[in-house]
Amino acid sequence: MPSADDLKQRIEGSIPGARADVQDLTGGGDHFRATVIAPEFAGMSRIEQHRRVYGVFGADIGGPIHALSLSTRAE
Amino acid sequence: MSDTTDNTLRDAISEAIAENDVILFMKGTPEQPMCGFSARTAAALEELKAPYAAVDVLPDPRIRQELSGLSNWPTIPQLFVKGELVGGCDIVTELYESGELAQMIGVEPPAEAPRAAPAAAEPGAPPLQIDTTPLEDAPRRA
Predict the structure, then answer these.
(1) Which residue stretches of chain A are H helix?
(2) Which chain B residues are within 8 Å of A61, Cβ to Cβ?
(3) C-alpha to C-alpha distance for B92 and A35, rounded to whole angstroms
(4) Partners of B28 in the beta sheet?
(5) Rounded mean pLDDT of chain B?
(6) B133 pLDDT exceeds 70?
(7) Among residues A36, A42, A30, which one has the least CA distance to residue A68?
(8) ipTM value
């Protein structure tokens, strides 16, 4: 079962220069909320920004990670 | 790769998206949402008094599979406006609060609509009858 810190590491390890703040919403290791700030988000639509973060987790979204609520911005 | 049934289902989903200017794929129905994120997204549309079609993805897991395959978006809910994926609960909530959602849909936000997006209601009891009418009816050509 992933922890908030696992998610943070994976986001920051996959998106160059990203800073992620991840909370486990329920304490159950399956519903998370993340705020992600990354330079590469500049010029990307919200959809593209969220897809980029979801892409880090692939099939884990909807699997072990039931829900990942996102807030993203370039700076 | 996919069998005929799945292709038919994917086609039906594409057509529903093409034929409804505002269409929400959700868990449960607007009256009986089965997930807080779906509830919150439907509630934002309700506050705007926006006409929209709703499709419950729960009756058949293939709906969700095919939809995510089409949209390249992993989670439910998914809101489409004029054939384009707008996003899930987070994005719809942000767009509601900035006023962009009403703009996109082409409605004037009612004066009584709250500025902050309505909070998610608790998921209700399971519906006795699952209404899949929008999915079955929408793709049929007149």
Answers:
(1) 4-14, 46-57
(2) 74-75
(3) 16
(4) B33
(5) 84
(6) no
(7) A30
(8) 0.83
